[in-house]
Design goal:
Helix content is 48%, strand content 11%. A five-stranded antiparallel beta sheet has the order 1-2-3-4-5. It has a five-stranded mixed beta sheet with strand order 13-12-14-15-16. A four-stranded antiparallel beta sheet has the order 6-9-10-11, with helices on one face. Helix 17 crosses helix 19. It has four domains: 87 residues, Zinc finger, CHC2-typedomain (DNA Primase, Chain A, Alpha-Beta Complex), CATH 3.90.580; 121 residues, DNA primase DNAg catalytic core, N-terminal domain (Alpha-Beta Complex), CATH 3.90.980; 159 residues, no CATH class; 136 residues, DNAb Helicase, Chain A (Orthogonal Bundle).
């Protein structure tokens, strides 16, 4: 449905955009703005800014920008109506009654509703008599009831249609349950059956705390022991981290995340006070998960059994060292510092043989766990150990030469310059070589390994004429300019840039609107990005009255030039039709007058709004 501007303004005013964006980006205060790494493209230096006063965001790297609605649409891949409803619900703003189908829905909103209902059903079942077996399992594993409730654990009862029967009462069709991964279509006859039966369920939530999938743990000889949701429109394996929504505040405050493998490991860590812990959902730690953590912290600590730590850590480090679309640049800049700072550092904490975080915390305790964390070693140090060791156990000059080459190649893949420098000094000492030689070779290899940026990154808005950009900025910031210039612009070809023209058209429709409220009036993402780029600029030093006069002369000049061209063309057409070489006197006089006025107007040049100073070299009276 179409939402009124008043409703949209109410939602916009109720949403704290710093809090909203901060759920996905680790923001740091920078003057009156907040800055962080852009969630919409890969970058190492923060270029993403949030302006809480205006309720907008903008990335100077990829050009993307908008308001709270635009952010949610991009982040959660929602349509505009879905984004409005999501923000209205979180902000407690009542929306007008909606009847019939909700136009513009992508289907995600209905699937989220289904998952929420299913989550409630499973939670209720866990704490009823039917969930006695699951509760006994939790007691056996040492999981407190409070933690189980905090994580939203549930129980899927035995039977083929327990959830289906419950959902029928909520008017949820089988097709929606199948699409959400909660039911499986029967092969030989119509209908479906419950996917999860007789299992303890761990809800998997997105960063906004919404259930998008489940992991189911069997109690006996059921195979598989863990049954997870399939990939759905809500859930892609390897893109989320278990408990990331719960752990995010601690991760941001401590600038560190603890990464474990299993659900119970994660819950036990939270139960013992390590609330910045997340789990990799039974998959290998993926680049998407790495990028997710990198938004919130600079350091990740993972845990390995001491017996297999070296081999596992080295293998994991080699995965993390694979070249990516970001390229790998840690060249030293002129000030002597490393460029491209801000790389996520991964460390390994060793646990005694046979232990995982769950068993260690229950048997040894949280104090010893903290000591293991404090003693964590860089995961790249394990990769360095492997690079230095000869696979065949050989020694001598030839073995050192091949080890030198392996270490140089490894260092070339290390994204963080400071860490690369530390590792190179250690490697040079163990190889008995000059650290400078190793460093130079690593830089040479790095150049050959560097890959171009990924083509899927958002493209920046097309370039626009600076004068047109200044004109639209003046209209945004000055109500007087709107009164004086919007009418002449309606008869002009300016601005020629499509996004700037869209902003002007929106202002013409709502000349009293605040600049940021125009976001929802613009038809394209590019137009919204252009508007956000104009709103994050500081233009308070502009003399609006002087600028208005200069733009009025510019517009008058443009209109008279157009009329002069039209008259000139009419004269040429008349001559071509009649064959008469002498032009019509009336048209010639009009052309002369228009040209004379244009000559007078060109004596003044429009003020540069970027610098706030006039560049006029002649008076229009000359």
């Amino acid at each position: 449905m179409q939402y009124s501007q008043a409703v949209l303004d109410d939602i916009r005013a109720a949403v704290d955009i710093v809090d909203l964006v901060g759920r996905f980006v680790n923001l740091r205060k920078a003057g009156s703005h907040w800055k962080g790494l852009c969630p919409f493209h890969a970058e190492k230096t923060p270029s993403f800014t949030v302006n809480p006063q205006k309720g907008i965001f903008h990335c100077f790297g990829c050009g993307v920008g908008g308001d709270a609605f635009g952010f949610v649409m991009r982040q959660d891949r929602l349509s505009f109506p879905e984004a409005v409803r999501a923000l209205a619900k979180s902000a407690g703003v009542a929306l007008p009654d909606e009847h019939g189908a909700k136009s513009g829905d992508s289907g995600r909103e209905e699937l989220l509703r289904v998952m929420e209902l299913a989550g409630r059903f499973y939670v209720d079942t866990l704490w009823k008599p039917a969930g006695e077996r699951a509760r006994a399992y939790l007691d056996q594993r040492g999981i407190d009831a409070g933690i189980a409730r905090h994580f939203g654990l549930g129980y899927a009862p035995e039977g083929w249609d327990s959830l289906l029967t419950c959902m029928k009462a909520e008017k949820v069709p089988d097709e929606a349950l199948i699409a959400a991964g909660l039911a499986v279509a029967r092969e030989n006859r119509p209908g479906a059956y419950d996917r999860f039966r007789g299992r303890l369920l761990f809800p998997i939530r997105d960063l906004q705390g919404r259930v998008v999938a489940f992991g189911g743990r069997g109690f006996g000889d059921e195979q598989p022991k863990y049954l997870n949701s399939p990939e759905t429109p809500l859930y892609t394996k390897g893109n989320l981290l278990y408990a990331a929504d719960l752990a995010r505040p601690t991760i941001q405050s401590q600038n560190r995340a603890l990464l474990v493998e299993g659900y119970v490991d994660c819950m036990m860590a939270h139960q013992h006070g390590f609330t910045g812990t997340v789990a990799a959902l039974g998959t290998a730690f993926t680049p998407a998960q790495l990028a997710l953590l990198r938004r919130y912290c600079d350091e990740v600590i993972t845990f390995f059994d001491a017996d297999a730590a070296g081999q596992k850590a080295a293998a994991r480090a080699e995965e993390l060292l694979e070249p990516t679309g970001r390229g790998m640049a840690w060249a030293v800049n002129r000030s002597g510092a490393f460029e491209g700072a801000g790389t996520l550092r991964v460390k390994v904490a060793l646990l005694p043989a046979g232990h995982d975080p769950d068993t260690f915390l229950r048997t040894v305790g949280s104090e010893a766990f903290s000591e293991r964390i404090a003693a964590a070693r860089s995961i790249l140090a394990y990769a360095l150990d492997r690079a230095l060791a000869d696979p065949d156990g050989a020694t001598g000059p030839r073995a050192r030469t091949t080890a030198f080459a392996r270490v140089a190649l490894m260092l070339a893949k290390v994204a963080d310059g400071d860490e690369a420098a530390t590792l190179s000094r250690e490697a040079a000492a163990r190889l008995g070589v000059d650290p400078t030689q190793l460093w130079i070779e690593a830089q040479r290899l790095q150049t050959s390994l560097r890959t171009p940026p990924a083509q899927s990154q958002p493209t920046a808005p097309t370039s626009m004429p600076p004068v047109e950009r200044d004109l639209v900025a003046l209209l945004l910031y000055s109500s007087e300019a709107r009164t004086e210039l919007l009418d002449p612009l309606a008869r002009s070809d300016e601005p020629s840039h499509a996004s700037l023209r869209a902003i002007v058209d929106a202002l013409r429709q709502r000349p009293d609107a605040t600049p940021e409220s125009l976001m929802t009036d613009l038809p394209t993402d590019e137009a919204r990005s252009v508007l956000s780029s104009l709103l994050v600029e500081d233009r308070e030093s502009i003399d609006a009255r002087v600028s208005i006069g200069q733009f009025q002369r510019r517009l008058e000049r443009s209109q008279r030039l157009r009329r002069a061209r039209e008259v000139s063309q009419a004269i040429a057409e008349t001559q071509a039709k009649t064959g008469v070489a002498t032009p019509v006197h009336a048209e010639l006089m009009t052309l002369h007058k228009e040209s004379a006025v244009v000559y007078e107007i060109t004596g003044g040049v429009a003020q540069s709004l970027e610098h706030g100073t006039s560049t006029s070299t002649r008076s229009s009276d000359e």
